[in-house]
């Protein structure tokens, strides 16, 4: 084969050589990509394992600080240590952290300083916003000589509160909590009170979002606003059993009466007010 024939043969096979080289390059790229993918997965697993260990350590350290005898700074540091665990998107130990803080509040609410309890309440609020709830069902009780407002925490599975007083913003922290029971509690200037269980409570200048009809006969109301309140039918009582609602200054605005199934003349049970006249009187 002369030089010309060799050149022609090489040109004829050149596309095949290039194709083979390209295929080898492609296979190499795929293999490297597979290796990179496996390396990434392995790194993610390693990172997750490290995160698990880090969050577990935070839970352990925070719990230890809250159970040890220490000054206020030590206890506040314990709560702060648990806050990242509560806000962890993967919720590795979030519920356990809620239980630790909730147990501290339930055990020490009567003797701990307000600043520590407020820090615990704020932390449990972080957990609630992250969709986490404690498994605890505590009960809280104030004696008759304790005139301080309740500092109540959200995030418990349920809770029972006995005695004491809620005023305005102090109720707002638990307004949307499920499974709340109040016994012999005084509420003052609380807004949009929700569908809880109330027994022997006294409401003063409050408003209601929803209310069980049974509760009218079991509690006392003074100058409360029932405008737009959704009244749910009671199992054993109704609003007719609350004969002193009108005499005690309870009312609704005539453009926004309470809501209840069936036709109800609310002016029989409550004072009907004109919103415009009420606004002028306030001025």
- The count of DSSP E runs of length 2 or more, i.e. the number of strands, is 12
Which strand order do you get reading across the main beta sheet? 1-2-4-6
Order of helices and strands: HHHHEEEHEEEEEEEEEH
Output the structural class: alpha/beta
Instruction: Say what oligomer this is.
Output: single chain
Largest sheet: 4 strands, parallel
Explain how this protein is built:
This protein is of the alpha/beta class. It is 43% helix and 13% strand. Strands 1-2-4-6 form a four-stranded parallel sheet, with no helix packed on it. Strands 3-5-7-9 form a four-stranded parallel sheet. 27% of the residues are buried. The N terminus is likely disordered.
Write a short abstract of this structure:
The protein is of the alpha/beta class.
């Amino acid at each position: 084969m002369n030089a010309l024939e060799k050149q022609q043969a090489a040109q004829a096979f050149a596309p095949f050589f290039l194709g083979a080289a390209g295929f080898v390059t492609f296979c190499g790229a795929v293999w490297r990509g597979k290796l990179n993918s496996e390396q990434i997965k392995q790194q993610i697993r390693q990172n997750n394992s490290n995160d698990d260990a880090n969050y577990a350590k935070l839970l352990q350290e925070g719990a230890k600080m809250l159970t040890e005898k220490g000054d206020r700074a030590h206890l506040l540091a314990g709560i702060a240590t648990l806050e990242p665990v509560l806000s962890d998107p993967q919720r590795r130990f979030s519920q356990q952290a809620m239980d630790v803080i909730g147990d501290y509040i339930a055990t020490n609410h009567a003797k701990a300083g307000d600043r520590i309890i407020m820090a615990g309440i704020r932390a449990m609020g972080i957990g609630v916003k992250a969709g986490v709830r404690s498994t605890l069902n505590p009960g809280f009780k104030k004696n008759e000589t304790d005139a301080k407002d309740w500092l109540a925490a959200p995030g418990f599975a349920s809770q029972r509160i006995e005695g004491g007083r809620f005023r305005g913003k102090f109720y707002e922290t638990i307004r949307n909590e499920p499974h709340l029971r109040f016994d012999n509690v005084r509420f003052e200037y609380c807004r949009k009170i929700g569908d809880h269980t109330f027994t022997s409570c006294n409401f003063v200048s409050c408003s209601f979002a929803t209310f069980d009809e049974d509760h009218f006969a079991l509690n006392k109301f003074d100058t409360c606003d029932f405008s737009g309140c959704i009244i749910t039918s009671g199992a054993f009582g109704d609003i007719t059993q609350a004969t002193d609602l009108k005499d005690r200054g309870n009312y609704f605005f005539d453009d926004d009466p309470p809501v209840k199934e069936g036709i109800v003349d609310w002016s029989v049970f409550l004072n009907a007010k004109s919103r415009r006249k009420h606004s002028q009187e306030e001025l």
